[in-house]
Automatic annotation (TrEMBL):
PROSITE patterns: ZN2_CY6_FUNGAL_1 (PS00463), ZN2_CY6_FUNGAL_2 (PS50048)
Gene3D superfamilies per UniProt: Zn(2)-C6 fungal-type DNA-binding domain
Name of the protein described by the UniProt record: Zn(2)-C6 fungal-type domain-containing protein
UniProt lineage: Eukaryota, Fungi, Dikarya, Basidiomycota, Ustilaginomycotina
Transmembrane spans: none
KW Nucleus (keyword) present: yes
Domain (Zn(2)-C6 fungal-type) ranges: 20-51
Pfam families according to UniProt: Zn_clus
PANTHER family noted in UniProt: CENTROMERE DNA-BINDING PROTEIN COMPLEX CBF3 SUBUNIT B (PTHR31001:SF90), UNCHARACTERIZED TRANSCRIPTIONAL REGULATORY PROTEIN (PTHR31001)
Protein localization: Nucleus
CDD domains membership: fungal_TF_MHR, GAL4
Assigned keywords, A-Z: Nucleus
Keyword Nucleus carried by entry: yes
Amino acid sequence: MSSFSPVPRKSHIIFRPTWSCTECARRKVRCDKQIPCQPCVKRGTQDRCSRGAAVDGVAVRASEEGLGSDTAVDEAQVAASQESHEQLTAVVAQLLRRVDRLERQQATSSFSTAPRSAQVVDTAAAAAAATAAAVSAATSSSPSASFPQAESPSSASTIGHAPLAIATTTSNSPASPTKSSLVSTQHLAQEEAHQGNGEETSVTIEYLALGKNRRLGILGVSRDPHTATAPTTNLLEWPHELALVPAVAAMLLPDRALRYILTFHTDAVQWQHACIHSQTFERQAQDYMDIGVAGGPDDDEGDLNDETRKARRWHSVDTLWLALLLSIQTITLHQMPAEDIRSLFPGRKRDALVDDSLAAVRACLDAGDFMRRPNFFACQAIAILSVCGHNVVDSNLLSSLLAVGIKTAQMLNLHVLGAESERVRREVEALAATGVHADGALRRRLVTLEMGKRVWWSLTQQDYFAIPFRGVSLVHPHQHDTPFPSNVLDTDLGRGCWRLLDDSELSLTLKQRITSVSADVLCRFFNALPRSGATLADHVEPYEASLLRLLPSHSQGHTIPRSSDPRLTFGAALARYLNISVRHKMLVVHRAFCGRSPAIPGELQRSQRIAVDLARAILSHCHMGATSTRPGSALLAAMWTTAYHAVAAATVLAMDMLAQPRDRSASWARRREVEQAQEVLRSMAARSPIAARGVSLLTSLLQQHEAGPQARDTAVKTVSWQDEERGRNAPAQKRARLAEPDRSSVELPGQQEEPVWTDAGAGAPLEWDQFQAIVSMLEHVPDMGSLFDGSLGDPFAST
């Protein structure tokens, strides 16, 4: 059989072009052949939606014998089409900015309260017509015709390269979008910053016809048009149309009173919370007060009357920034001296002013939609109320606000600032080594970073301080890495200088830094403390030593932090506060240890003796602060924590007075200590419901001691708080303050607020767990916290 080899035939292989985009081809999903395609739009990846170089260059690519001349013609046509597309995109972007500018001018001039949807139809129709005309002109002209180039929109403020986006957090003005949104990853933020040059024209026209602005979002969620393009320097750039709330109008104070309040806040209150950057907030407040006055940014009519000025300011600024301003105003009014209140507000009571100001804060938070719109201003306002407002805000409301503030801060990624902090530190150190000053962008990053750390730890420390009473915390210690606030001066931050101070040097952040460290120590202590079998050496002394190092006299060799800034005059008050607060945390540690069945005999009595010594030291500092004439000493009594710490210490001394039988002289010496503690609490009772409640408690315990051992055998078993009445009138009763105290005796609140102690038969003297329960009742936490351990209604249940 003859063999032969087949003759190879020359074949022409035709490569069919794929009109699917490269992203859909990579994912192997169906593409609608449009650029950008709907699958990419839904995934938020339209910036990567393209057909690739092969398809864009030629429609059909043949084999070696392909049509070379046709390919060259196609390439030229595609290049011309791309150039025309870029020019057309620039025209559309310019029209978008013009439409937005016209809408803002119309809203600024009218301040109409009608729904915005009523005005969108005409604007969208005009925009669609203008865009259609531009498209027609562009398609009829040559590809080489010149078009105005679009400016890239400014992105939302972010913290460097970290996955964090805070809407207008450190702007020079409180003006910000009413509906700002959150971009939770840096990648999406970068896409949003450059999307103006990459949107496909036909889809943009469709969105304009619908009155919408096509923005990148998460999983296709519609975004507000003001998210990425809102400037932060013009107060009237994005006015909102909500009607002025009467509660807010009543507390938008005249400029004279507001300036005095803000000055007092800077001098005497800001160091207590440190939740704002001084220079930034001062600029924001000045911009706010310039609205509606001659020479201001909106000076078209000269000075306005009071009502019109209030309406103009309400419409011009972010309502959540107003909530921040009013929260500062609320706390400052509560802590200001009585003579200042009488001078600024003749005929008005402090209580009414504080209550009205708090109502205005709540109204602004609601108007700003703070539950749905994550906003840094809202976090700042909640943090200030949580740190300083326990004598002002109802307990249940405060706990709810704290929970909302923590979750909002987590949505803003304030809990993961560790990597960004390290990046900023390296950049600042590199610039310092070369002698180059930080530019504006780095200064803003530095301020925003430090403010994020301060606000996060303000919320976290309040959560950790409630662990002894609730048994739980909202913030898991292993699920956040934000460092403690740095001890730096606000003036240095404003200049882009990260000059870290020693903890012996005074700054507005020093108090918050030390309390944050003590809160972290307390959280670690309770996580390590076993339910039983604890020992002092393993479970108390390491944490006690960490707290002891925070005392000014222990770690710094002197009692008052020194300051290089003459404007910082609160050093004596801060030193006194730290001596009280840190010792109180040590007292909490020993109280918890005594309630957990220590493993070694004799350690219970030893821990109780340490607790009594700590209580005496706390009351000694409270007494010296109340009688001191040093500048700033009066600030100590105005802080809610001072009264709470004094009540806890006084209760320890009272329990020690009743605990064991002693000779008559020793017993009456301890009674005298309790009476002195009662006098200290009386001096605070006018402003502090906690102190007033402590006075009543000590009165009952002193009566038991005076009645003798037989009466003291009657154990306290039940407490009636009349929950229904207290819940109905909680805000008023929470802040039931008396007239300004310059008298020795203080009238106590009504009986419905006071515990009603009843006999429950003969029993043993008050034990340590009963003492813990009494102190727990004095802590203002919601009753729902008892649901975690099933002890709701039983004040002496073991913790």
